[in-house]
Amino acid sequence: MKQIPYSVLDLAGVIQGNTIADTFRNSVALAQHTEQLGYKRYWLAEHHNMPAVASSATSILIGHIAAQTQTMRIGSGGIMLPNHTPLIIAEQFGTLATLYPDRIDLGLGRAPGTDQATALEIRGERFHAQHNFPKDVLKLQYFLGDDNYEGRVRAIPGEGTNVPIWILGSSTESAHLAASYGLPYAFASHFAPTYFLEAIDIYRRNFRPSAVLKEPYVLACVNVITADTDQEAERLATSLKRLFLGIVTNKRMLLQPPIDSMEGQWTAMEEAAVEQMLTYAFIGGKEWLKGSLHTFINETKIDEIMITSHIYEHADRLKSYTIAADILKNL
Known about the structure:
43% of the residues lie in helices and 15% in strands. The chain is of the alpha/beta class. It has one domain (6-328): Alpha-Beta Barrel (TIM Barrel), CATH 3.20.20. The chain has an eight-stranded parallel beta barrel with strand order 1-2-3-4-5-6-7-9, surrounded by eight helices.
């Protein structure tokens, strides 16, 4: 099995007892740390009206991280395109690509990244803009490309930067779109595992080569929490499980400190729902993690793995990424 690139998804999570400013400082420190460990990309995701997630102004945060790193690609995982017009995103990412040449990625999703009431505030009369997603992706490619220099409406900056575009997805619909456009495909298996295997199969079978990509390219995002022992990793993972429990019960809260056991924290039904969301969560010590990641990569034949780690203590989070990198560079 060949070594594959490994990358980072940072949701800019806000931790109980910390401020949003602390979150941003920790994101910079994590990006610098993982860059030194050989991680290829560092992506941030657009979310709104979520007290535990501070990446709502995604392009600004991308610029902030890019300014304080040197070689790692920084990008979006993703920008929720229906929340914006293609021209605005072309200008924003064209600016980023001009400031940080050949280091910016533009992952695109069609979901609002929030609840319906907030989506209405964001989109206004464009509330149903997700239906325009396929043609808006093409329009965005055009604005960022080389062929619009005589157009009435131009993205300046942006035109000619050809920022790499990815299609993000958590369903089979996105797989068909990524395949038909010949774009790389990133799947959100870290929270929506149900259609992962079906979606990447659809993408590969239906892929049409394009000017930007000759063969299908699949990136899978997964949860990884590792430590010196299986027991310590399981303890650290209680923060993640409580976070997902809040999603299941609609009682969302900031990332909480780890606890010794989840016993008494959830009902059997809630536990099953959380564990289903965590189908592709890799929680354990180094030896267990090595075998599990090897099996996952070998069976799915993914081209790149992206890791997200909801860990309460910043030092434990850095250590988890260190262990994961040591495994992935030696698989």
